[in-house]
């Protein structure tokens, strides 16, 4: 008999349980996590990392020390989720903004150095930072809020998913099969059902 693990709404967060001997893993249904539309194609498998925000204070001491400590203390969770065509395009645009901003900023720095226009360099750096922020905001889907031994919590699910969860079933039971947490849609319109 497979072990049941809860996948539930916790406020505005998606809470994923974990197997006692493994990091949290979840396979979400083939529905868009933003708008609950049907997903064409395969799910995107992504590994998320998280550490307690207090570790960011090490940046004030030394960035390299922070990076080493963050690599040691971070926790991970693996989630396979779906995106509809519209939200896939939005995510691609976010990635394009970051990459395009990086190349544009690099080009402005080169032009600024080559033509002795020192004012271009701070503008390029500012443009690069702005493109990173815009890309992260537009390109991310799920954002880990907490990952520990008991499970993981993510924000970023759209309201349509929550309306479906509240109407159909506020707590969605799922099954851990071969170490993977799985559940499936109840019907084509919306909702979830228990896998037994």
Write a brief caption for the model.
The chain has 196 residues and is an alpha+beta fold. It is built from 5 helices and 11 strands. The strands form 2 sheets. The chain has a 9-stranded mixed sheet. A two-stranded antiparallel ribbon has the order 10-11.
Question: Strands, helices and their partners?
Answer:
Layout: E1 3-10, E2 13-17, E3 25-32, E4 44-50, H1 58-61, H2 63-73, E5 75-82, H3 85-114, H4 120-139, E6 143-148, E7 151-155, H5 159-168, E8 171-177, E9 180-182, E10 184-185, E11 192-193
Parallel strand pairs: 3-5, 3-9
Antiparallel strand pairs: 1-2, 1-8, 2-7, 4-5, 6-7, 8-9, 10-11
Helix pairs in contact: 3-4
Report on this model:
It is a single chain. The protein is flat. The protein folds into 2 domains: 1-45 and 78-83 and 145-196, no CATH class; 85-140. The strands form 2 sheets. Strands 4-5-3-9-8-1-2-7-6 form a 9-stranded mixed sheet. A two-stranded antiparallel ribbon has the order 10-11. Mean pLDDT is 77; it is low at 1-5 and 166-196. The chain is of the alpha+beta class and 196 residues long. Helix 3 (85-114) packs antiparallel against helix 4 (120-139). The protein contains 5 helices and 11 strands.
């Amino acid at each position: 008999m497979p072990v049941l693990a809860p996948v539930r709404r916790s406020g505005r967060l998606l809470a994923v349980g974990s197997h006692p001997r493994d990091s949290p893993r979840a396979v979400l249904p083939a529905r868009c996590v933003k708008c609950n539309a049907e997903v064409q194609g395969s799910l995107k498998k992504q590994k998320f990392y998280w550490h307690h925000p207090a570790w960011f204070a090490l940046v004030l001491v030394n960035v390299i020390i922070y990076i080493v400590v963050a690599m040691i203390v971070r926790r991970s969770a693996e989630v396979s989720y779906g995106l509809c065509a519209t939200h896939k395009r939005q995510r691609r645009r976010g990635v394009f903004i970051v990459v395009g901003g990086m190349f544009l900023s690099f080009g402005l720095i080169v032009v600024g150095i080559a033509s002795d226009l020192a004012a271009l360099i701070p503008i390029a750096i500012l443009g690069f930072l702005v493109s990173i922020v815009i890309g992260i905001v537009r390109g991310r889907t799920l954002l880990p809020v907490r990952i520990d031994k008991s499970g993981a919590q993510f924000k970023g699910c759209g309201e349509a998913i929550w309306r479906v969860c509240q109407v159909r079933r506020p707590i969605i039971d799922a099954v851990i099969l071969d170490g993977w947490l799985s559940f499936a849609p109840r019907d084509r319109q919306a909702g979830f059902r228990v896998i037994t």
